[in-house]
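Blackboard transcription, Thursday session:
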Amino acid sequence: QKEVEQDPGPLSVPEGAIVSLNCTYSNSAFQYFMWYRQYSRKGPELLMYTYSSGNKEDGRFTAQVDKSSKYISLFIRDSQPSDSATYLCAMSATGNQFYFGTGTSLTVIP
Amino acid sequence: DAGVTQSPTHLIKTRGQQVTLRCSPKSGHDTVSWYQQALGQGPQFIFQYYEEEERQRGNFPDRFSGHQFPNYSSELNVNALLLGDSALYLCASSLYGPGNNEQFFGPGTRLTVL
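(Written on the board underneath:)
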């Protein structure tokens, strides 16, 4: 079983839609969670960082962590064509070695 | 404020050769982590350096080695290259210690092994 599971998509939504991206994990020791956006052939760009459980909001992005269900989510409100990218979740028990999902490919259609 | 930089951008090598990749961390960061990202996959952790020592290592063979310099920059060395080593190699910088673990990535070095 992989440490982190993420639906690869692809996911296609109309401009302005709310996007929900999810990851599940098996290691109950994970307590550091991050979401990255990666454009084709570029390095990942950090979007959200969360420690332990709860919600965090930053502009159009909201990250949720449910440690009891071992499930994390990223919501994107008012999605834009520029949001079209691959979204990666990452998590760690120690804050040193991070385990990544395979990424979800998102396309926002104008 | 300069972000994470990596060099070179692209590299083509043949099987059996050796390669060295370089990384300069974001200003103020003291920790460098290296990841390998194969096409269509998420990054896989290779190792992390802090205070010029390897602090943690992922499931990679000894052909992968590294170094951190006093100015916090780092190198990744790969010996005896295999075709399967073809990937995007990413460097991430952060601050060491709990609660400050956001990792910021560089643009990566794309390695092709022929």
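Lecturer's comment: The CA atoms of residues 29 and 96 of chain A lie 13 Å apart.
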